[in-house]
Automatic annotation (TrEMBL):
Highest taxon in the source lineage: Bacteria
Gene Ontology biological process terms, A to Z: translation
SUPFAM superfamilies the UniProt entry points to: Zn-binding ribosomal proteins
One term of GO molecular function: structural constituent of ribosome
Protein name, entry field: Large ribosomal subunit protein bL33
Leader peptide range in chain numbering: none
Keywords assigned: Ribonucleoprotein, Ribosomal protein
Similarity field: Belongs to the bacterial ribosomal protein bL33 family.
Annotated source species: Oceanobacillus zhaokaii
Length: 49
């Protein structure tokens, strides 16, 4: 079963992206490098609660 999660920028903490994550196969928090509109560059985005 997949849950909807939100990704937040590690630098400015703005919540820019949302995606789905399969909870049964992935137990760790998702970390992806994506473009942050607020910072204006590619930064690390982490899964929020």
């Amino acid at each position: 079963m997949s849950n909807k999660i939100t990704l937040a920028c590690a630098i400015c903490l703005s919540r820019n992206y949302s995606t789905n994550k399969n909870v049964s196969t992935q137990s760790t928090r998702l970390e992806v490098r994506k473009f942050c509109k607020t910072c204006g560059k590619h930064t690390l985005h982490r899964e929020t609660k």
